[in-house]
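Q: Structure tokens for this one, please.
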Amino acid sequence: MTGQTRETNGNAIVAHGLTRRFGDLVAVDHVDLTVQRAQVYGFLGPNGSGKSTTIRMLCGLLLPSEGDIEVLGYAIPRQAEALKRRIGYMTQKFSLYDDLSVYENLDFVAAVHELTRAQARTRVDELLQRYWLTEQRNQLAGTLSGGQKQRLALAAAVLNKPELLLLDEPTSAVDPQSRREFWDSLFALADAGTTILVSTHYMDEAERCHRLAILDHGRLVADGSPQELTAALPGQVFLVECERASAAQVALRGTSGILAMAQIGAQLRVLTERGDAIRARLDDKLRAADIDAHLQKVAPNLEDVFVAATLKGGDRGSRNGDPGDRPPPARDSTASAPPRDTP
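A: Here is the predicted structure, written as tokens:
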């Protein structure tokens, strides 16, 4: 590690062998990570996959058990205090003061960053306008809606004009329209040069990232752009169209070569291993159950990638991860996204 406050090779974050243990529990297991500048980099993973723990180590809030970290040219955790002036961090849970107004919360954050009174007024007014909070200026933060709290938290996180913004599942409690507006704000920041690392449990959000890491059991199991990850899927996907999708799912359960199934309305999406014989095997099973169905091979999506990547670790005995981990969902469930980490 150089310890210099200058990025190398256009990278904002470089981590090698990043590991964190809590006693015998391995929350993050030798993760190598590279995030380029002005990039929206996503973390996707099930409960206890290590997303939150990794983010806390990257911003110097949690000491790694092993590994090297360089963020914006600073060696972490040794230079974490110097780094804090150049980053913004938004936690899963709204962490501002409920009994202060919107303006008072932002004014307090400005004071923490040692802005002068004139600088604070100018910056806070700018952020209130940018994040549609002008009308809520004097409203207590605790009375805001979920989307308004989210925008206030983002305004606080970027008040110091950070070069790097770390967001830990920032949209987990807001409506779809607020999520869309939030992501529009993120891309505006990235276009202005801010590097963004964001964890999410929404597939549509993951698809919007420039690059994506999938974590499972504390390990990085996939890394690439959404397009690269879907193109490299080590499997194939069939769409089963029939009037009895639930019955088709029961009939196909246990068939050799099937990795996962999910019912989507009146259709059944089936992820299988590669091979020409599998389609005939599916047809035979459905006919034997007297189910009239049409099978169509379709392009994989990011959810298929997620299922395939996390299945690789499904046989490694007891599940590692963050404290408070829950069991993973059944692979033939209708869940459309991984459940979020516990705080």
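A few notes: The two ends are 31 Å apart (CA to CA). The longest strand covers residues 11-22.
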